């Protein structure tokens, strides 16, 4: 890019490209949404994560047009995809604040125990945050907001809300159903999680009744697992035995079309690097194809490079990032 400095373009929420000097004297471009800007630094949310650029290192900067829509089988905005994802992981309690959703599920996962802040809360930000604090205080939970990275997250950070787990939302097209798109026979699919599946997922902590309710909350879901060959050969009837890897597939049907969601993908530590996650992902994409899903999404911690590489091999690409922000005090 030309060495053009358009400081008037450096407004939080705008898509920009910033050329900046690296420590070794070379230069690099950061292309993405400008999520924070002040007299000392710029923070650009790129497809590969956030890039922090000191003002003194800026060589050129300007606003650029929005990114073209991704072809994922169903065109969808960030806010609409967040609403679709919310239907795959429904909490026990939900209270609407304008377009925002205040969610609680006994503390089981951040997704089900945070305020989804997309759209207009129907009041000013101070009043909205006070409602969020009151909702979670009444349930003895910390006040957490989940929002796509952008002006709102930048403002909450400015107010002292602490960032927790920046998360990427990735999407992929679902192949059209055909005889060649079949579920891997080594992957077992069940309509409910048995004790062995839950044990494979519990490295995040006990699921409990609140967690089980969330896991069964979508319009339809399936629980995939890879088990030793002896377990695959015959049904033991009790759902016991060892599980090598697990995953959950879910469906939502509505105005945005039918979406497949992938979640709870876990492989036992001693069985990693054997391609089990890839087999589970492929089996769930085939399952979604059989049920008319046109596109799939998943959510993964931005810092989890290994999982992201797995999902990219399965055809997923980053759609957007969101963050959990915890209230100060």
Give structural notes:
- This protein has 329 residues and is α+β, with helices and mostly antiparallel strands.
- The protein folds into three domains: 7-63, SH3 type barrels, CATH 2.30.30.100; 78-164, no CATH class; 172-321, 3-Layer(aba) Sandwich (Aminopeptidase), CATH 3.40.630.
- Helix content is 22%, strand content 34%.
- The protein has eight helices and 16 strands.
- β14, α7 (276-290) and β15 (295-301) form a beta-alpha-beta unit.
- The radius of gyration is 21 Å and the shape is globular.
Descriptive key words:
8 helices; Aminopeptidase; 3 domains; 329 residues; alpha+beta; 16 strands
Chain-wise SSE layout:
Blueprint lengths: L14 E7 L5 E11 L3 E6 L2 E6 L3 E6 L14 H9 L6 E5 L2 E5 L10 E2 L8 H13 L6 E5 L2 H8 L3 E12 L14 E3 L4 H7 L6 H8 L4 E7 L2 H5 L11 E10 L2 E11 L8 H15 L4 E7 L3 H9 L3 E10 L3
Parallel strand pairs: 8-9, 14-15
Antiparallel strand pairs: 1-2, 1-5, 2-3, 3-4, 6-7, 7-8, 9-16, 10-15, 10-16, 11-12, 12-13, 13-14
Report on the biggest sheet: 11 strands, mixed
Tell me the total number of β-strands. 16
Helix content: 10-25%
Total helices: the number is: 8
Low-confidence stretches: 69-74, 230-239
């Amino acid at each position: 890019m030309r060495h053009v400095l358009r400081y008037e373009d450096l407004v939080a929420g705008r898509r920009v490209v910033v050329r900046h000097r690296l420590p070794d004297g070379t230069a690099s471009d950061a292309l993405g949404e400008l999520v924070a800007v002040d007299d000392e630094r710029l923070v650009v949310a790129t497809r590969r994560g956030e890039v922090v650029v000191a003002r003194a290192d800026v060589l050129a900067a300007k606003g650029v047009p929005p990114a073209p829509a991704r072809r994922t089988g169903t065109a969808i905005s960030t806010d609409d995809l967040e609403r679709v994802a919310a239907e795959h992981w429904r909490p026990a309690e939900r209270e609407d604040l304008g377009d925002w959703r205040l969610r609680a599920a006994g503390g089981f996962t951040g997704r089900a125990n945070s305020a989804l802040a997309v759209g207009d809360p129907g009041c000013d930000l101070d009043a909205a945050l006070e409602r969020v604090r009151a909702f979670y205080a009444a349930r003895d939970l910390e006040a957490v907001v989940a929002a796509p990275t952008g002006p709102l997250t930048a403002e909450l950070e400015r107010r002292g809300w602490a960032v927790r787990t920046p998360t990427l939302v990735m999407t992929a097209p679902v192949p059209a159903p055909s005889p060649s798109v079949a579920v891997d026979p080594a992957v077992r699919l069940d309509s409910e999680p048995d004790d062995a599946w839950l044990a494979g997922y519990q490295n995040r902590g006990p699921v409990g009744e609140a967690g089980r309710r969330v896991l069964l909350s979508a319009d339809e879901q399936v629980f995939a697992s890879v088990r030793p060959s002896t377990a695959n050969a015959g049904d033991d009837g009790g759902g016991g035995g060892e599980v090598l890897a697990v995953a959950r597939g879910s469906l939502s049907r509505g105005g945005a079309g039918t979406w497949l969601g992938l979640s709870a993908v876990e492989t036992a530590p001693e069985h990693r690097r054997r391609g089990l996650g890839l087999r589970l992902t492929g089996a769930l994409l085939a399952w979604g194809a059989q049920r008319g899903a046109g596109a799939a999404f998943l959510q993964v911690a931005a810092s989890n490079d290994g999982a992201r590489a797995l999902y990219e091999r399965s055809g997923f690409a980053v759609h957007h990032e969101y963050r959990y922000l915890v209230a100060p005090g």
